[in-house]
Amino acid sequence: MSPHTLLEHRRGHTADLLVRRARLLDPRAGIDEPGDLLLRAGEVAEIGPPGSLEGPDGAEVVEGEGLHAFPAFVDPHVHLRTPGREDEEDIETGTRAAAAGGFCAILAMPNTDPVVDSADLVRALRERAREEARVPTGFLAAVTVGERGEQLTEMGELADAGALGFTDDGRPVANAGVLRQALRYQRMVGLTLALHEEDPALSRDGAMHEGAVSAQLGVAGIPSISESTTIARDAAIAAYEDARIHIQHVSARESVAAIEQAKQAGVRITCEATPHHLTLTDEAVRTLDTNFKMNPPLRSEEDRRALIDGLRSGVVDCVATDHAPHAREEKEEPFEVAPMGVIGLETAFAALHTLLVEPGLISLPLLVERMTAGGAPFGLAAPTLAPGSPANVCLVDLGAEWEVGEAGYESRSSNCCFAGRRLRGRVRMTVAAGGVVYRERSFAIGAVR
Amino acid sequence: MRNLLSIEDLSRQDIERILARASSFAQVSGREIKKVPTLRGRTVINLFYESSTRTSSSFELAAKRLSADLVSIKAQGSSVDKGESLRDTVQTLSAYDPAAIVIRSPYAGAAALVASWTTASVINAGDGKHEHPTQALLDLYTLRARRGDLEGLRVWIVGDVLHSRVARSNILAFTRMGCAVTVCGPPTLIPRDIATLGCEVRFSLDGIEEADVVYALRMQRERMTGSYVPSLREYAARFQIDGRRLAPHQLLMHPGPVNRGVELAAEVIDSPQALIVRQVESGVVVRMAVLYELLAGGLSPLPASRGIRTEPQPA
Lengths: 449, 315
Fold this sequence. Notes:
The structure holds two protein chains of two kinds.
Chain A: E1 17-26, E2 31-40, E3 43-48, E4 60-63, E5 68-71, E6 73-78, H1 91-100, E7 103-108, H2 119-132, E8 137-141, H3 155-161, E9 165-167, H4 176-189, E10 193-195, H5 200-203, E11 208-209, H6 212-217, E12 221-222, H7 224-241, E13 244-247, H8 253-264, E14 268-273, H9 275-279, H10 301-313, E15 318-319, H11 328-331, H12 348-357, H13 364-371, E16 393-403, E17 422-432, E18 435-439
Parallel strand pairs in A: 1-4, 1-5, 6-7, 7-8, 8-9, 9-10, 10-13, 11-12, 13-14, 14-15
Antiparallel strand pairs in A: 1-2, 2-3, 5-16, 16-17, 17-18
Chain B: H1 12-29, E1 43-48, H2 54-65, E2 69-74, H3 86-94, E3 100-105, H4 110-117, E4 121-127, H5 133-147, E5 154-158, H6 165-176, E6 180-184, E7 200-202, E8 213-216, H7 232-239, E9 251-253, H8 266-269, H9 276-295
Parallel strand pairs in B: 1-2, 1-3, 3-4, 5-6, 5-8, 6-7, 8-9
Helix pairs in contact in B: 1-5, 1-9, 2-9, 5-6, 5-9
């Protein structure tokens, strides 16, 4: 069974759409040229030189002059807060935010209330997604019952029910023995284990990165070694068991080094980095604004640079948002008590484009490659503009500047670490699994542009 | 100046002004009737989310001696106990139109948050392990009363710097006044990178004879459970200030309450070099000076007349 069949969404009609004279960019397929793009019956039907293609009868024609057409993005790390905290996000609002961010597929984390640790819950979520999800959504199940780190979930049954992978995200599998058993069991079940890496004995009650800023603020720090030592441990266990692991939200330079070493040794390991860790540092925490509180924490400039280097070299395989909505009243508490997490689906591309591509730290093709690679660790093929492929496309105006949060968010929550910032790069339209799932307001049908 | 949230916000000039004001209030405190009418008709709210004896009582006395109306709220037994958020509590209290809110919270940044939610002046009476600016000011005041100019003095801050808001405010305050600050304690109780605040770091008392002032911090008994120190016995053996370690030319300070026999030996607490009781005395006049600075100081606008509607002038 292809993992793609496990992604669920509300199926609408597929769009016949001709995008004319856009800049087509799909580095994986070697496409980087101005051209026309025809989407038909859920597939990329044809690409051709600018002005060369004619739309079939009834097809919508989009003038793409000044726009880039990318394969739409894939986010392997999203919190939809359903079930349990639908006041913060639900499948409908979360996938609407994803569509607005240019994503055509997302993977939802199981640390809900209750935790996704039973086959019934996986089936129920998939059914909800078939009714509500605007973009194809996959569900990871927990590694341990209740994410308590003790007893393995019924991983076989969860896989049969359609879980796309396993994770205790939000927490580490702290006990090395439990992790080892899960990785041995993986030989039978298949499916990747995604790991939130930290050592609770080192993180203790830390609320931010341990460094000069935490020392000055008197806020307990989470040392980088909390993450990196656990990654090194788990890479060694995975090597020993010949297992397949994916490291979530890498934040520290020591972690990048540990993963690079493991990759060189042939361990089957991949990893992701978030837009906030790639663009911000613990200096942002000085104001104790709770929209800069997340786990792992924003680290130092050297750590940020190491993540960017990793993104460039390929040690960091993909970008993941770790979109984590929280209720306003919970984020309006003092920093040390506020919950960890920030939303990121709607700002991921614009933040990375403005803060990494424009200053020349990475190239645009590299960014597109890394933002479309998030499904690979879970066996999902990357979206592409190559003719004959499923139609997953986003149209982006790289020059469009906007203020984050000015017009609100598609997400039900607003805890965004880029709030108030002016970013360049606006998703105008997203096509996922053949259907138009998002149009920016200025780009609505009939709008004067 | 509207709020006092952090020593970081104060220039040396600001500090000098507050200390000078405190001196003038000290003269009032010597009189039979200690009250001045400065804040008559204005309200000061003390909002304490942590137990405190000397800070809360000295703020209360300071407000009363300035003739302010005072409301003191402790977290226990208040709406906070019923789960009210800090924001809602502050908004509720702001409805009484207070001139100032004095807040003590177990969390860093709480005073700044309160300031963002109210038009009252906010005074940080301790926010988590972050800062305790009025303690630092009263320490400067006390030391100046004994030593005069502080420029060039060598101050050693000894003990649990990691968990101490007093240490952070005092490192900033002493360096701002031209002192050379050294922090000293076991490495487990000294934050990594604390030197970025402009102090030296030592892990033993060797060399303490160079200090003009030894500022000991409170060593909390619960620190043993977190493996910060193996035992209070070993801590005391290495870091306790006793008669042998305190030279006659050195002054001794401590923010209180003292753990006798742990960070300080009984003989130094009661010695003439100890300024500990003076520090408590200074608390009232320095907090009067802070209230005055924020509510009646030269830079803040005149208190708006409230509840009185002025008739429009005929054109």
